[in-house]
Amino acid sequence: MKQLWQQLENHLSAHNPELIADLNPPATDAQIRELEKTIGAQLPAVFVACLKIHNGQKGKADWLFEGHEFLSIEKILMDWATLNRLLKGGDFDGEAAKPDPEVIAEWWSPSWVPFTSSGGGDHLCLDLAPSSKGTPGQVIKYSGELPSRRLKASSFSKWFESFVKAKVGC
I need a surface site. Which of 21, 117, 151, 166 has the fewest CB within 10 A? Predict the structure, then answer.
């Protein structure tokens, strides 16, 4: 994870210094424990390693992930809690999801942990409880308005590696 972040930071330093300045310092162990306690699940080790390098962005520059803000733990918890409140309040009742086979057929699941946000209801999420065809910790795309639930990568490490290689041109 450190090597991938170094490649990305080198690229950003040369091409978008405002964005690198927008990245937060590392998350603390206490912040990570609070996140895991709140969601009721252990996060994949590679995602924890990512948070220990940068705890998301401040949100005052371009968004890191192609039109999506890299969420800090504070924003992960806010978005996760909001979506779970809507779920418990019945706001998603009657909504039918059309997921890829690796993703459960739910409009929203508490086992999805958003780590990016488009600002308009779309997220990339860690899927901690996939369908029987999926892999715990896979990355999925969640849309607040569309029924599709798409598998983006079988793990956070594969997704992040692919993102960095595409971004820096490796």
Answer: 166
